[in-house]
């Protein structure tokens, strides 16, 4: 795989996913507050969850990015670039709502304590943070450090893949928000 094209793909995916997430902040209050019949989260809660998950993943991503850049001095980047192989199929399942069982840590669950305007601002900053990390690792340095990801048994993933995971996680919840909205519309139509 061409690592530089992969970086461009991640940048594009981030922008698309975060743009889609941002649109949900403009939904009307009924759509934001609707709780699905099966007792899932409201769109408001999903938006908070996306922010919280990004917050904790970005801590790991920043540490990994710093270590990857330091490793550039000790590892053979050219060799890593030549030997890099991306497991697209397994990773991209992360972006598919309901593709596998996902038990999230409690600290990533929404508490309904934040204003939507604050969450929106923070998610926008998180996008810029991700894009900044990709720019700092534009020569392939993100391959030089791996961290274990237990979700979907991904195993050891590099810093680029961690950033892509973050974007796929948002994509997963975009589907969930769309499903909530469709269910709310159907319920409103059947009630009238």
TrEMBL record:
Pfam family, one: DinB_2
Domain DinB-like residue range list: 28-177
InterPro entries: DinB-like (IPR024775), DinB/YfiT-like (IPR034660)
Protein name, UniProt field: DinB family protein
Gene3D superfamilies named among the record's database cross-references: dinb family like domain
């Amino acid at each position: 795989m061409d690592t530089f094209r992969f970086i461009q793909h991640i940048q594009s995916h981030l922008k698309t996913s975060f743009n889609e997430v941002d649109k949900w902040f403009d939904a009307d209050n009924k759509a934001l507050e609707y709780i699905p019949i099966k007792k899932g989260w409201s769109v408001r809660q999903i938006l908070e969850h996306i922010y919280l998950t990004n917050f904790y993943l970005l801590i790991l991503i920043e540490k990994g990015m710093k270590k990857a850049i330091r490793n550039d001095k000790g590892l053979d980047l050219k060799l890593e670039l030549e030997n890099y192989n991306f497991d697209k199929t397994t990773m991209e399942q992360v972006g598919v709502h309901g593709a596998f069982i996902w038990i999230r840590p409690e600290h990533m669950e929404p508490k309904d304590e934040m204003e939507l305007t604050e969450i929106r601002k923070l998610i926008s900053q998180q996008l810029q943070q991700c894009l900044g990390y990709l720019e700092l690792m534009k020569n392939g340095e993100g391959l030089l450090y791996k961290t274990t990801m237990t979700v979907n048994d991904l195993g050891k993933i590099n810093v680029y893949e961690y950033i892509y995971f973050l974007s796929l996680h948002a994509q997963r919840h975009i589907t969930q928000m769309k499903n909530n909205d469709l269910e709310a519309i159907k319920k409103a139509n059947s009630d009238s």
